[in-house]
Amino acid sequence: MSTLPNCPECQSEYAYEDRGMLVCPECGHEWSPGAEAEHDSEEAKVIKDANGNVLSDGDTVTVIKDLKVKGSSLVVKIGTRVKNIRLVEGDHDIDCKIDGFGAMKLKSEFVKKV
User: Fold this and answer.
1) What domains lie within the chain, and their CATH numbers?
2) What pLDDT, in 10s, does the model give residues 91-112?
3) 67 SS3 class
């Protein structure tokens, strides 16, 4: 019986070790043997604004820098208030709707909590 942990992605019991990494043959996921604790900390990832305040879903934020809208000549001006943000995974970690622009994704480093 194997003493290796199950795959953190698909919970497969058929994980094997390859060059210091653990590999799941069913989903192809690779992770390091001590990654279980890291995986738990990623789930509890804290997103902070430009001033270091912790953001949460439903917060209202203010844009602290003029932001060019990619693919358009429009600019989100400094001081624009964004209500009811939603936090998401990825490079742009805030999903929101801005009046006059519509749905948009922002980086938390360019906003401050109101």
Assistant:
1) 1-40 (2.20.25.10), 58-111 (2.30.30.40)
2) 999 999 998 889 999 999 999 9
3) strand
